Design the sequence.
């Protein structure tokens, strides 16, 4: 009999009592508890953070019966301890204000243990709650904080409100360190890691395990975990899609694998995998639950070249930087799960990129809509025509359809942006179409703006801004010999010169030659 898929279930007790599949993470949690006391971990939304917090709560509350058959079942002394849970996933702070939301959470925790709190400030009430719980039970307290940063992140487009909430939270969380004699364990989860001059200046005793190799797969699903826990669902999906298990594995990896926080272990998106096994269709699941409108607008308005969002090189200090008043878009994209660690270069720096096809395709579609100010249905129609034109080597039709996208861009945007803006649109189009495109390819004599490869054709492209002409771009390709390294390829090969004309809001007539 098939076990239920725990789609949307973030409560460990409910998951176990309903007989749902649980990917056993208790060996990692056992290590977490045994090795330390204060922890912080950053992971994207819908990645299992809340289930992790819920599982830890049941461990510290001594709910041994829920863990039968799991790794931790016979590994610890089961003892009932008081647990304080602070949870911002409900969004109540948006309706009643952050101070009142915190106040209500403290009251809820106190009521659970038949306590009354007398202090006036939330900081004082938090400390009072911890002290009274320790005194009443004789056991130290576990404090579990889920989505600690949501009241800040949710107001990222309203800096004044975000800063106000940050200061409220910094004061509130500042209680934790002085309460050390009363605390057994502290775990805090969130999407972002704010810089140390912010909230974390009050919490400098937290062990940040975000990129630790020991905990890199604490959430998400490894290939081994999927094979072990979802064998029956894989067989159902392979039959529904009329593919072999091997082919299914390859497609699942392409669509949903690729997240890494240590460049050693790689995990699949758990929400997307559960939805896939339910629907047996490869589609955009995780991305669709939170389309990053703010990110798209920020990238577009800053004139950031979409090409530069992939293969970004950062050092280890990068992972500790997040300043809402001086936003680094690459840092935000990494922490939100739109970028992940893909590799390391010869200098030990990390190379970031899109984790998988779901994120790559969805992000590029969102960016293209944002850059062209077109709705998705219109973009889709144009993309279909562009795909057909590349198939049959009809560059003139390709040219006309690109200009259709350019025509939708507001005049003031079009004129103010630079060459990278238009180059980004072409790059995004080709990426979405599934065409292999390399940008700014280095040669011994310079950098090629773009190399497009299809099954039958190779196009070497150079972009210029008017008053430079397409012929100027073509001449540069020839003078620099950009095309020389492709001469031995058996596909038909063309060099293309393109000029952007901001006054006419289009590509001027391109020049193309076969070589």
Sequence:
């Amino acid at each position: 009999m098939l076990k239920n898929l725990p789609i949307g279930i973030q409560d460990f007790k409910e998951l176990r009592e309903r007989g749902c599949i649980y990917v056993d993470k208790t060996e990692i949690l056992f290590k977490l508890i045994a090795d330390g006391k204060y922890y912080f971990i950053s992971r994207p939304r819908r990645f299992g953070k809340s289930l992790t917090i819920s599982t830890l709560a049941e461990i510290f509350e001594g709910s041994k019966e829920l863990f039968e058959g799991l790794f931790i079942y016979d590994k610890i002394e089961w003892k009932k301890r008081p647990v304080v849970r602070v949870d911002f996933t409900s969004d109540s702070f948006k309706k009643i204000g952050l101070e009142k939301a915190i106040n209500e959470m403290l009251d809820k925790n106190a009521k659970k243990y038949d306590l009354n709190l007398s202090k006036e400030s939330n900081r004082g009430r938090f400390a009072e709650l911890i002290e009274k719980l320790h005194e009443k039970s004789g056991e130290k307290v576990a404090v579990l904080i889920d989505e600690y940063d949501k009241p800040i992140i949710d107001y990222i487009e309203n800096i004044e409100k975000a800063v106000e909430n940050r200061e409220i939270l910094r004061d509130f969380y500042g209680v934790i360190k002085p309460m050390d004699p009363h605390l057994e364990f502290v775990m805090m989860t969130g999407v972002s890691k704010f810089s140390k001059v912010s909230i974390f200046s009050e919490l400098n005793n937290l062990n940040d395990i975000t990129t630790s190799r020991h905990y890199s797969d604490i959430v998400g699903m490894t290939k081994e975990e999927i094979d072990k826990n979802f064998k029956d669902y894989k067989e159902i999906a392979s039959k529904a899609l009329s593919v072999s298990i091997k082919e299914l594995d390859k497609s699942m990896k392409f669509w949903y694998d690729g997240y890494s926080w240590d460049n050693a272990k790689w995990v699949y998106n758990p929400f997307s995998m559960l939805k896939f096994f339910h629907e047996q269709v490869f589609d955009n699941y995780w991305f669709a639950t939170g389309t990053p409108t703010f990110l798209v607008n920020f990238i577009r308005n800053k004139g950031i070249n979409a090409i530069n969002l992939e293969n970004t090189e950062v050092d280890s200090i990068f992972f500790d930087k997040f300043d809402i008043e001086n936003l680094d878009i690459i840092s935000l994209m990494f922490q939100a799960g739109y970028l992940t660690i893909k590799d390391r270069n010869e200098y030990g720096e990390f190379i970031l990129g899109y984790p998988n096809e779901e994120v790559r395709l969805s992000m590029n579609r969102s960016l293209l809509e944002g850059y062209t100010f077109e709705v998705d249905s219109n973009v889709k129609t144009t993309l279909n025509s562009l795909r057909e034109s590349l198939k049959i080597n009809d560059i003139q039709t390709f040219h006309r359809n690109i200009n259709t996208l350019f025509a939708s861009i507001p005049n003031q945007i079009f004129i103010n942006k630079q060459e990278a803006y238009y180059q980004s649109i072409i790059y995004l189009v080709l990426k979405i179409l599934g065409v292999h495109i390399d940008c700014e390819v280095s040669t011994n004599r310079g950098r090629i703006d773009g190399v497009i490869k299809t099954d039958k054709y190779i196009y070497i492209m150079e972009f210029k801004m008017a008053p430079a002409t397409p012929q100027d771009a073509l001449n540069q390709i020839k003078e620099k010999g950009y095309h020389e390294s492709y001469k031995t390829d058996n596909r038909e090969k063309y060099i293309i010169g393109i000029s952007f004309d901001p006054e006419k809001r289009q590509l001027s007539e391109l020049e193309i030659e076969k070589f």
